[in-house]
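Section handout, structural biology tutorial.
Before the tutorial, make sure you can parse a SMILES string by hand: atoms, branches in parentheses, ring closures as digits. In the record below the ligand is flavin-adenine dinucleotide, and the chain has 339 residues. In the tutorial you will relate the predicted structure tokens back to the input. Do not try to memorize them.
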Amino acid sequence: MMHRVTFQQDGIAYDAEDGQWLYDVCESAGASVPFACKAGACGTCATQVVQGEESLGAQRAREIRTLESNGLDPRRYRLLCMADVHGALMLGASAKTPKATVSLRLRKIRVEAYRPLTLTVCEQRFAVESGELIFSPGQYMIFHVPGIDKVVRRSYSIASHPSDKTHFEICVRAVSGGFCSNFIHRLRPGDRIQVEGPYGDFRVSGGSQRDVLLVATGTGIAPIKSMLLSLLDQGDRRRIRLFFGLRNVSDLFYTKMLGDLRAAHSRFEPTIILSQPDPEGWSGLRGRVTDLIRDQVSPEEASRTDAYLCGGRAMIEDVKKLLIHKGMSIEQIHHETFF
Ligand SMILES: Cc1cc2nc3c(=O)[nH]c(=O)nc-3n(C[C@H](O)[C@H](O)[C@H](O)COP(=O)(O)OP(=O)(O)OC[C@H]3O[C@@H](n4cnc5c(N)ncnc54)[C@H](O)[C@@H]3O)c2cc1C
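Predicted structure of the complex:
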């Protein structure tokens, strides 16, 4: 069964298959809707639905959260990257101006090394089989995971140094009941998968001489690690602090790497904090990354520091509020939201 999708702002129409992903429909129709994360996280593709909203199914909590955090009314806007078409549809104006839309370029990659980091987090190292991968630290790749009846796409941030153009690493938490994260955990050396990218605007501000504050929770450390490795290679003297939040001792990973970097670079100061450590076995800091910001960042430091945050939406919102309260301007705060 086919459904007519009309793009009012472009004056075009397209016949979509029942269940077709609206991102694919936009691409095939040549519509000017802008996309970035394609995972419901950034809000770039928010678009008004003029008629036939019921054809897109109910909004998920994640979609509503993303629309609201972009200051958009979920009753008026839909995220096209989160919807499949099940009926006739007329789309109105996009909330954001179309930027240069990203072109879909699939690459084959091969697992070169699999490394479990904790019971639920693993690192995968890939060899890029087609062309060179040129990316900015902080960017992510979209993995195409073969599902039962369609390919499922999920974003994973690059965790490695950008100087290696033929390999990259990711670190992934196996989400309970999660389709792609568990698929990626099962990959072993020699396995192949397709990816597209790199994508994303989460990058280190070029030319800034301000100090750097990196804040990560869980696997939010992935893009932060890539940024950190690249920043430490640059021959400036900026202070780089990392606040890394995890839950329990069993969740700790990358601690040796961070310790080694600290020993090699006096300007790098990592701090790890656990929110729910066992009573025994942890003599370090207890609490959340927000506690570190409250206690360890002075207003004077905030004014001369750029912050890069990565993790869940709630943490990012809380940290942003605190940093702004300390006197950091919104332009100094950069973030990537995973879920
Ligand atoms: C730009 C970007 C970069 C990302 N980079 C990374 C990365 O480097 N490492 C990484 O581990 N993840 C990363 N993610 C998250 C990743 O894309 C997936 O959302 C995550 O792996 C879950 O996918 P899934 O298919 O396994 O779960 P799904 O099948 O999509 O979800 C299954 C269930 O788990 C819930 N859920 C989904 N994600 C999470 C989560 N992260 N925590 C708790 N519950 C969740 C869902 O609400 C659902 O109920 C990134 C996301 C974005 C948008």
